[in-house]
Write a structure and sequence with these properties.
With about 230 residues, the protein is mainly α. It contains 9 helices and no strands. Helices cover about 60% and strands about 0% of the residues. The radius of gyration is 29 Å and the shape is rod-shaped. The termini are far apart.
Length: about 230
Amino acid sequence: MGKSLKSRLKAASLALIAALGLAGVAPAAAQVLLYDPNFPTAPIEPSDPMVGIPLPGATPAEYRAHLVWNLRSGLNVAALQCQFSPYLRTVDNYNGILGHHARELAAAYTALEGYFRRVHGRTGPRRFDDYSTQTYNNFSTLQAQLGFCQTAAKIGRELLAARQGEFYTVGVNRVRALRSSLTPVQDAYTFTRMPIALAPVNLAWNCSSIQDRRERRQCERDQREAQRAERRR
């Protein structure tokens, strides 16, 4: 990954922290979902509006770069928003993905930069910045945070396991799930586990079981006093 792209991603991440208001925020007091939500996982076309902001006049290669960039952006947001659970390792996995798929990510960046220069001319760089910022914002979520974080973590592990050059292939099959995870879901555990039936607590007096004579008589006096108090109510 070229130096310019690395510095641009670093700057974008800092801007994302400010935009999402994450600097200095206390970790969320929550755990990941016990069961994986059943989000759609069907393959998606790079030009599908669900992938991200439409790119009018984009070539097939530019739309492929668009899908790659949206998936990377979503995982970048997850790296910042999902640090409440060290188990997810979203930060380490994201940094690993940047190195493992550096060549493919650099090619996607170059293709998108070329698209915005070709379509918007001198304002292309600014339009690219606006596109990147809006893409980040579109992945930001609080109500659906747990489902999004768990899904993003799984995708991150899949990308680390994939061969170099297969970022797009993974993206085609996983972007739909990542976008769908922005819809809040309930943990299935809430609905698949029956409450435990506890035996009733016997509050009746049983002074006869007390061996000590004085304690037994005191128990009987306390019992009579409690019964009189109950009748006076």
